[in-house]
Amino acid sequence: LRQLPEPQRPEQSRRSLLEGPGSVTSLPNGLTLEVPITIDSGSNADFVGMQFIKQHRIALLPATLPLNVVTVDGRKLLGGQVVQQTPPMLLKIGNHREVISFNVTQLSDTPIVLGMSWLDRHSPSLAWYQRQLTFGSSYCAQHCIQIGQEEEGQEEGQQLHLGMVQAVPHKYKGFLEVFCEKEADQLPPHRPYDC
C-alpha cells in the first residue's frame, strides 16, 4: 500500500469565526467608516471599542441602562460598568442595513462586537464554509433595509433617511417630517400673517 500524505490542516485562528467587513455611519454628521465587525454569540450585548470612539471622535450619550460586564472566566471588566453608548448609527453588513446604538467599552482585538441579542433579533443564516450571513428573518423584512430589495432609482440619502426613521422613538413618529434633511433645509410655506 502506498502511504498517502497527511492532509494539510488549516491554521487555527484566535479570531472569531464570524468576523468580517462592515461599516458604520454616524447619523448626526454622515461620516461613514469601514470597520471590521465580530459577531460573538458569547456576548450578551453590542459593543464598540473606546479606542475606535476616540480615534474617530464620535460623540457619546449616557447609557440607557448601565451594564455590568463579566468576562468569559467570570471576572468583572476592568473598566467597571458600561455607562456610555453611541447615538444611533447606521450599520451595514453586506446588503443589510440597520440603525443601532452600541455600548462603549474597552475592546482588544476588534472595534465592534455584535452579541447574542443582535443574533436573536436578526436570526441570520450562516453559510459556515463561506463565512457568509444571509438576513431573511421576518424581523429583518420589517425593520432592516436590504440593498437590492429597495426600489430602483433611490439615492443614497433617501436610503439613509429610511434607516434614520427607524431610530425615531415611537412617540415622535407623528413628526417624522422634522427628521427629514430635505424638509429641514426648506422654509415653511408663506402664510397670510407673515410679513
From TrEMBL:
Ranges where the record places region Disordered: 1-25
Pfam families, per the entry: RVP_2
Biased composition regions of type Basic and acidic residues, renumbered to the chain: 8-17
SUPFAM superfamilies, A to Z: Acid proteases
Domain of life the protein comes from: Eukaryota
Protein name (database record): Peptidase A2 domain-containing protein
